[in-house]
Design brief:
Elements (H helix, E strand, L loop, with lengths): L2 H30 L5 E4 L3 E8 L12 H23 L6 H24 L2 E7 L7 H23 L9
Antiparallel strand pairs: 1-2, 2-3
Helix pairs in contact: 1-3, 2-3, 3-4
């Protein structure tokens, strides 16, 4: 596949992933916003609507929302755009490209949500874990793929010779 077609496929994939995330968030908002959690697997998995004004795991909860929201929005949008640009580069490996695609789609999806609403819609609740959404799944899967790709590349690469150091 030539580079132009590859870039079109990657951009279309990013748009599709962001669209899927926003569709699920809208369905959750309409179906779950004013209702009790819906149990899918008793004691394990629920659908539970929440509006998240913080970052993952509540890491910025002590920062005022008026400061936190613009910072998180800018970070998500900028990070997502940078990762998408890296994904579109000529010299990326398939696994790294997929990882960057997932990371960028997740960051952009949550950034757009925060930009449009002032918060991120979360609705998937695995017990003993914070509530999350599809974009968070993209980010987690992308980070895992990137980590594995780096580990595999470093285990395959020949060791540096002392003269090259």
């Amino acid at each position: 596949m030539n580079l132009f077609r590859l870039r079109v496929v990657l951009l279309a994939s990013a748009v599709l992933l962001v669209g899927c995330d926003h569709y699920t968030k809208q369905v959750a908002k309409v179906g779950l916003e004013r209702s009790a959690p819906h149990t899918l697997v008793a004691g394990v998995l629920d659908l539970d609507y929440t509006e998240n004004t913080d970052s993952g795991f509540g890491l910025l909860r002590k920062v005022p929302v008026s400061i936190r929201t613009p910072i998180l929005t800018a970070a998500q949008m900028t990070g997502g755009a940078v990762m998408l640009l890296l994904c579109l580069r000529r010299k990326s490996r398939r696994g790294v490209r997929l990882a960057l695609l997932l990371l960028s789609a997740g960051a952009l999806a949550n950034g757009i949500d925060r930009l449009a609403r002032g918060y991120v819609v979360d609705f998937i609740h695995i017990h003993h874990w914070p509530v999350f959404n599809l974009a968070d799944v993209y980010i987690t899967a992308g980070a895992l793929l990137l980590f594995l790709g780096v580990r595999l590349a470093s285990s395959v690469a020949p060791p540096a010779s002392p003269s090259s150091l």
